[in-house]
Amino acid sequence: MMKTLNKCFDVIVVGGGHAGCEAALAAARLGAQTLLLNIQKTSIARMSCNPSIGGIAKSHITCELDALGGEQARNTDYTAIQRRTINTRKGPAVQAHRAQCDKAQYPARMQSIIAQQKNLETLEASATQIWTKNGTLRGVVLSGGEKIAGKTVVLTAGTFMRGRIMIGQTVIHEGRWGEAAVDDISVSLETLGFELGRMKTGTPPRLHKDSIDVSKMQIQPGDEPPPFFSRAAKRESLEIEKSDLSTRINSAQIPCWLTHTNEHTHQIISENLTKSSLYSGLIEGTGVRYCPSIEDKIVKFPQRTSHHVFVEPEGRNNIRIYPNGTSNSLPEEIQVRMIQSIQGLEKAQFIRPGYAIEYDYAPPTQLFHTLETKTVENLYFAGQINGTTGYEEAAGQGFVAGVNAARKILGLDAFVLDRTEAYIGVLIDDLVTKGTDEPYRMFTSRAEHRLTLRQDNVNFRLFHRAKELGIISDADLAETTDAKEQIDKEILRLGKTFHQGASLAQILRRPGESYRTLPCAKLELPPDVIEQVETSVKYEGYITREQGRIASFQTLEKVRIPRHFDYDAIIALRYESREKLKKILPETLGQAARISGVNPADISILSVWLKAKR
């Protein structure tokens, strides 16, 4: 174990959560000698809260990772116990997949992938300090005082930095249930000059499955055929259909169930609000507005007499049930009363109470788009340390940080996805340009170009970026190229083939029409090709207009701003704008235009100065 301490790594990743796993795998797959540090190897990729992946906009990030060479999508597909597509009644831009995973199998498979990855070592250790010398990054310091040399460091600390679990008035210094918090890293970052803040999230209690009466609830089955995130699982599922062979994908789905809180539930909560960590003043950090605790729901929506509670299994052979929608920080005895007031949960037995957790984060305006910090060169932040919430948001950041850390050491250009290319680009641009004062969660509404950033076209829109990175295999790239040729050829045919005085493309655009009902439809085409043809033809006008807006956006994005540009020299700029620009240090004129408080007149002035400098 100690032999690794005498080695200088290209990339050291601190923390084995969803950000850390993607960062370590991406760096190693690019050829960088990588070390993944985690307190326990068995807790790598642990799903601390709900064992689910996907949902509105989140699934877009997971699919983008798959298109670029990440692991989350495959890991989800091969460990899922239920798969669904949501928003099916709406347009393709907002449709998304969601999978309930097996809580034990998900980390087990990811740990196996990491153990087999070339160029990647793991070490059970706790990092307590970012090691610098004369302002230059040297590596990390471990809890025992040992130093590990690293050319770059990716810090993915999750909720462990000064983590505090709160149940009622009880405070436990842990980063998550049963795992000690790490305070020294926070002290180290503050010493280096980083600004830190506090955020809060929470989780529901866990219930014993044998104490649940599902006969009183509404069943929520998975979709058939099941949707998949990854190209590997999609390919395998098609091969199974053709050959009728057994598969590594366990397609047997487990249902979830739906019940509701009621007026009695709300009364129990209301009468005990002062005992809640959240409403007693014990919690300082800002919580997740879009995923509120049950106390928050009762206070902020007093007119509602009930709220959804999704009763979700945590695995095929797991006794634990996750009552989604009951996250809280009430004392355990109050939690029991609250849960047992809900239909179907009258005899529910607790395995573990719900709790709130508060932790340090670093405002992400301290980062460049590569997720490298502005304060310490070669140090990168990814995941909840940047003020985000969610496995998917963390994984997307981890991948970008790991890629950029590796590419910097390998002497390659930075890898940055912009807002027009990917939801990952929207996520990172929002964070580094606008910052966040609450846990950031991705939504389709955050993406201006969501019609072109669909989940279904991810392999096509990110084809050139995936090819640039070189993680995706040549065979997968060739498969995408072949599919694109089929799509273009079929769209051309539909425009030139006429039936009863109208082209097939015109017929397909009619309300209620689908490709499969077209005269002369080529039903032998692969399902993904048919899907792309139908979407491209039906939404052609909208997509064309959006591509025009993207072209305008990219005009500003092409104007680079030197990193050490002297904003104080531009007297015509308003004082507020100069201060904002000096803080954010925008990398392009487009990013400068998105900074809150910088107006169009400021951008015009800045544009003139940049042209003069060039």
What does this structure look like?
By secondary structure, the protein is an alpha+beta fold. It folds into four domains: 274 residues, FAD/NAD(P)-binding domain, CATH 3.50.50; 153 residues, Elongation Factor Tu (Ef-tu), domain 3, CATH 2.40.30.260; 63 residues, tRNA uridine 5-carboxymethylaminomethyl modification enzyme MnmG/GidA (Arc Repressor Mutant, subunit A, Orthogonal Bundle), CATH 1.10.10; 56 residues, GidA associated domain, C-terminal subdomain (DNA polymerase, domain 1, Orthogonal Bundle). It contains 20 helices and 24 strands. Helix 1 packs parallel to helix 10, helix 7 packs antiparallel against helix 9 and helix 14 crosses helix 16. The N and C termini lie far apart (53 Å). The relative contact order is 0.13.
In terms of topology, how is this protein built?
Layout: E1 9-14, H1 18-29, E2 34-38, E3 52-54, H2 58-68, H3 72-77, E4 80-86, E5 96-101, H4 105-116, E6 120-124, E7 127-133, E8 136-142, E9 147-155, E10 164-167, E11 170-172, E12 174-176, E13 179-180, H5 184-191, E14 197-203, E15 206-208, E16 218-220, H6 231-243, E17 256-260, H7 263-271, H8 294-300, E18 308-313, E19 320-324, H9 332-340, E20 350-352, E21 355-361, E22 379-381, H10 391-409, H11 423-434, H12 458-461, H13 463-469, H14 474-496, E23 498-499, E24 502-503, H15 504-508, H16 527-538, H17 540-557, H18 575-584, H19 589-593, H20 600-613
Parallel strand pairs: 1-2, 1-9, 2-6, 9-22
Antiparallel strand pairs: 3-5, 4-5, 7-8, 8-9, 10-11, 10-21, 12-13, 14-21, 15-19, 15-20, 16-17, 17-18, 18-19, 23-24
